[in-house]
Amino acid sequence: MSGPAPASPFSEDEKQAVYRAIHTRRDVRSNFLPDPIADDVLRRLLLAAHHAPSVGFMQPWNFIVIRSPAVKIQIKAAFQRANDEAAQMFPERQRKLYSALKLEGITETPINLCITCDRQRGGPVVLGRTQNMDMDLYSTVCAVQNLWLAARAEGIGVGWVSIFHDDDLRRILNLPDQVTPVAYLCLGHVDKLWSQPELQAKGWRSRLPLDDLVFADGWGQTPDTCPAET
Ligand SMILES: Cc1cc2c(cc1C)N(C[C@H](O)[C@H](O)[C@H](O)COP(=O)(O)O)c1[nH]c(=O)[nH]c(=O)c1N2
């Protein structure tokens, strides 16, 4: 067993590249290019996801790569049913705007990707999950974020679609009982991105001020010095 190697520092350009990926990543639902995603690019994205942290190194994820138009059509129908229900849940004043939003890119992207969490992968007792069983789900979300950032660097737009009944995803994708669908993602090349979240650009909701969200030493306590807002 070898010990830790020196943590090689990032160059200024490397640092800027990481922050650029973080700050310019977008949830993308439209304006996908028709170009296919090359196998080596997809492989790099999946490898980035697979290098996410996970509770007890459980690695609870699987990646279901969906290219079949027939499967996508079933998924789109499941979205449509759930979205029609969702529209009715918003108050009248928001319903019109909600219905005008484009909230998925299922059939217009070359690849859909369902990232799942196998809740039994590590056996009944997993280091770090002993009191908090949902840590495997949180780990899977880390994999999603890794992939989302890597995709930004590769020029691939990613849209997360969550307007489904899980049972529909389970049935269409033949998921075993112990496997939870965590993220349904639509992936395609893009050459244009919103410079702010699309929901903000369209007047749905704005980014909260960071300073309102930072507490010191306990809930609700404002720090003496706040980090500067970006
Ligand atoms: C868990 C989860 C689930 C969803 C989303 C995100 C996440 C994290 N988002 C995308 C969401 O609207 C978007 O992230 C925010 O509006 C912020 O925009 P940017 O991601 O910064 O572009 C999303 N968007 C959408 O159009 N349809 C959807 O069903 C969902 N579902």
From TrEMBL:
**UniProt cross-references to Pfam families, sorted A to Z:** Nitroreductase (PF00881)
Q: Which CDD domains does its entry note?
A: BluB (cd02145)
This enzyme's EC code(s): 1.13.11.79
InterPro entries annotated for this entry?
A: BluB (IPR012825), Nitroreductase (IPR029479), Nitroreductase-like (IPR000415), Nitroreductase/BluB (IPR050627)
The UniProt entry's GO biological process terms, in alphabetical order, are: cobalamin biosynthetic process
The protein's annotated catalytic reaction(s) are: FMNH2 + O2 = dialurate + 5,6-dimethylbenzimidazole + D-erythrose 4-phosphate + H(+)
Nitroreductase domain sequence ranges:
22-189
**GO MF, one example:** 5,6-dimethylbenzimidazole synthase activity
The reply to whether Heme figures as a keyword in the UniProt entry is no
The main enzyme category here is: oxidoreductase
NCBIfam families associated with the record? BluB
**Complexes and interactors:** Homooctamer.
Q: Which family does it belong to?
A: Belongs to the BluB family.
Protein name according to UniProt: 5,6-dimethylbenzimidazole synthase
Which organism was this protein described from?
Paracoccus amoyensis
Which taxonomic lineage does the organism of this UniProt entry have? Bacteria, Pseudomonadati, Pseudomonadota, Alphaproteobacteria, Rhodobacterales
